[in-house]
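Progress report, Aim 2. The chain analyzed during this reporting quarter is listed below.
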Amino acid sequence: MKRLAILATLLLALTATLLAGCGSSLSTQKGGGGGNLGANDWKVTTMNFSPYNGTATITSKFSNGTITGSTGINMYRGTYKTGSGNSITIKIGPTSKMTGTPQQMQAEGEFLQALASVANYAADENSLTLFGADGMTVLTYKPNVAAKMTGTTWTMTQYSDGKGGLLSTGSDSAVTLTFNPNGTLSGSAALAGFEGKYTLSGSNITITSLMLTKQTGAPNLLMQSGQFLNALKGASSYTIQGTELTLRNAQGTTVAVCQAQ
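Predicted structure tokens for the chain:
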């Protein structure tokens, strides 16, 4: 009887150990495991259980209690605070006031709402996952590796409408541009090629001598080509976040958004 009692005690102890281990594992999977939020600049890969396939990159950067990034349309800024274990609270402040397509505006709203609901996180050098208070994943990210300004072929996704808003380029009016290392700029806008010159100084850019090299196609597409070039001419500064290039005018208003190919 004494031997049976000892065996029973050992089995109970082993069972308790296994259950504790499983509980810890499930907690990590559901609610995150902390980590270094500032390991990378991040871009969204899934949002509310669905892959994010939008044309505009959504980004976040965590640094010393401040979160900044792009909603795909607007720049945002806020604060975050981490607590014991893997807890985190995020508060988003005012954003810029650009407009986009209905799909982009919807994605922006869903993203900002998701950020506000975050309660826990798990991060390593290759991924970041943000969890809601119920322990379910609301956002996942991967590192947002910055493209190089020169030598990269950029595809314009949005351009200024001249009234403070942004228009999206269509499949029939694709715009590509390349900033060549020798200070020249070349590309295609709708059905017209163009070329010009540019200079860089820190985050400032000046684009000059833009001209169409060939003009063929429907009048409306040629008119769009002129709008694209006007947007480029108005550029005064630039930022690159991962694969997204944003050009702004002297007032800080976005005049063009491009994605690296």
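The two ends are 75 Å apart (CA to CA). The chain has three helices and 18 strands. These observations will guide the mutagenesis work planned for the next reporting period.
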